[in-house]
Amino acid sequence: MRDQIDDDARIRKVAATFSADEIGDVLEVEDRTFEAPPETLQDVARELIRGAYKLKDRLLLVLDTEKTVQLTA
What we know:
By secondary structure, this protein is of the alpha+beta class. It contains 3 helices and 3 strands. A 3-stranded antiparallel β-sheet has the order 1-2-3.
């Protein structure tokens, strides 16, 4: 019974909304272009970015949405 209570306490449903300043093109990226977060990212940014895709003229950062919604104000 104790295990069930612990499991229930860990399960939370969270509703979140993300806002974007602008929506650009929809891109298809190749798995081979994915890399770990850049070394230049520090602190919270490093924890929230899962990695990056190297594109021709920019980086496409992948946000860890689960960690993002778990942030406290």
